[in-house]
Amino acid sequence: MQETLSIVGAAFGGLGIFILAIGLMTDGLKMAAGNSLRKILSGWSKTTLRGIFSGFLMTSIVQSSSAVTVASIGFVNAGLIKMRQAMGIVYGANVGTTMTAWLVAITGFKLNLGAVALPMIGLGMVLKLASKKERIASMGLALVGFGLFFIGIDVLKDAFSDVVNAFDISGLDANGILGVISFLLAGIVMTVLTQSSSASIAITITAAASGIIGLPAAATMSIGAFIGTTSTAVFAAIGATTNAKRLAAVHVIFSLITGAAALMLLPAIFWIAEGNLDLESNIAVTIAVFLTVFKTIGVLIIYPLNNKLADFVERRFTSKTEQEAALTYLDDNIATTPTLAVNALVNELKAIGEKVSKLYSDVVNGADSNAQEIERQKTVIFKLCGKVSDFVVKMEKAPMSEATTEHLATLMRVNQYLVSSASVAYRLSLNEAFGKKIDNEQLSDEVSNYFKNVLAFVNGEHFNQMTDVDRVSEQFDALEKEHDDVKSQLLLATTQGHVAIDHTTDLVECLIESKRLAKFWLKAEKRINAMQFVLLTDQEKSDFLEKAELETDH
């Protein structure tokens, strides 16, 4: 019993040292690299192929595919790289993890580990404690990690040797389908528990080299470890952004495809192991070769399918912003019929106008407490307006009448006015003075009423319904006069010492911005109304003009 506990404790301690070592190496090398990780991942991944190379290189350096994958997710969310580029990085990072297997295979069983590891730890701590430069201190931390890496291997090797001496392990091999499934699950579970495929591979290679398991079993466990490493990405994606979920899904799909290909290679491994080639004598290197081969095959399989896989995950995982930024009336089919396309563009712009109106309403009613939602609404509007622009550009490449060309030019101007209106509303939400009361209660109410009157103007139904543009212009003129009056009163109150000058400066900027928004809105209204009038039948035009004349008389 005591011997068993001693063996279990040694194996558990060796695993702990190894995981600690991987963490120190990863953290130290990431800090030492500084901006290099960002530069390589963002600058060297312009294409999927270059992304594969950069993912492989950085994972080989920092010894953690999870660190590289998480970094690439961050760059995708920041807009530094595209999701399809990040997919290449994920593929390359998975191949890069084979460097750990090679490190264990080549150095772990041929060196006097104590003679190598202890000086590395000592030198690393000297650099860590003595250097004032963060980069050198970080390199020292990484050096300590490398030293502990070798000590962890040594402890695991001794523990597994004791297992061989103490127990009958002759039955531990991947014989038959049940045996393959058992060792595959063992590799998966081990990686899920340790959250490190590097640790699982090291345990597998060390166990195989110590004689606990044979080559087929070790190969099967290494496949399980590769599949199990997707758990890190899955856990990281829970509650995360849409792009994080997409990359996690890509990681899982890639691993399953690659794992299936590796399982197909297993019979060949079994046959070779039982044949004339003496692979068992150098089992650690053989497993490293197997890992490298099947992961490379996985990349070769998935590379031609990269765009289809990207399309698949983008359809399966969509954010609220992306759903709202989907065009309602425009598609490629309607672009082939100019008359229908112009009508659809008018309807699309009217729908975007409603979103701009909602944005300004939310700014006026709660700019200081709804910042994230306002940011999201602004993003939706910008995306929609960008898609409208792309649609118009695509239409202009086809032959069309002069009248249709003029209509498209008008609608593009409306589109730009809506973008400008959304930009102004968003800037207002960032102004700390907007919506805050001032000490002079009467003046504070007048300022607040002006913003509400602008909101009433923007919320008017005349943007979505045919109306008399002259009457709309009169409403804007009244707003302009109110703006001038309120600003004059505010400046007078400031000179009399009733309002702080800094507050006045910010409030005047808010007044100007609100007036600017109303002006953009007026221009958009005039043009969208003109386009709606053009699209009416002759009878509808006559009825509208007659109704407008009657309203004017009253």
Write the topology of this structure.
Elements: H1 2-33, H2 36-43, H3 48-62, H4 65-77, H5 83-96, H6 98-107, H7 113-130, H8 134-166, H9 176-194, H10 197-209, H11 215-228, H12 230-237, H13 242-274, H14 283-302, H15 306-316, H16 320-324, H17 338-366, H18 371-396, H19 402-430, H20 441-458, H21 469-495, H22 501-534, H23 538-553
Helix pairs in contact: 1-8, 2-4, 3-4, 3-5, 4-5, 5-13, 5-14, 6-10, 6-14, 7-8, 8-10, 9-10, 9-11, 10-11, 10-14, 11-13, 11-14, 12-13, 13-14, 13-15, 17-18, 17-19, 17-20, 18-19, 19-22, 20-21, 20-22, 21-22
Head-to-tail CA distance between termini: 103 Å
Find the structural class using helix and strand composition: mainly alpha
Number of helices: 23
Count of strand segments: 0
Radius of gyration: 33 Å
Largest sheet: none
Mean pLDDT: 76
**H and E order:** HHHHHHHHHHHHHHHHHHHHHHH
> Quick one: overall form?
elongated
Poorly predicted segments: 163-171
Fraction in beta strands:
under 5%
Characterise this structure.
This protein is 80% helix and 0% strand. Residues 163-171 have low confidence and may be disordered. Helix 5 (83-96) packs parallel to helix 13. The chain is elongated, with a radius of gyration of 33 Å. It has 23 helices and no strands. It has helices at residues 2-33, 36-43, 48-62, 65-77, 83-96, 98-107, 113-130, 134-166, 176-194, 197-209, 215-228, 230-237, 242-274, 283-302, 306-316, 320-324, 338-366, 371-396, 402-430, 441-458, 469-495, 501-534, 538-553. The chain is mainly α.
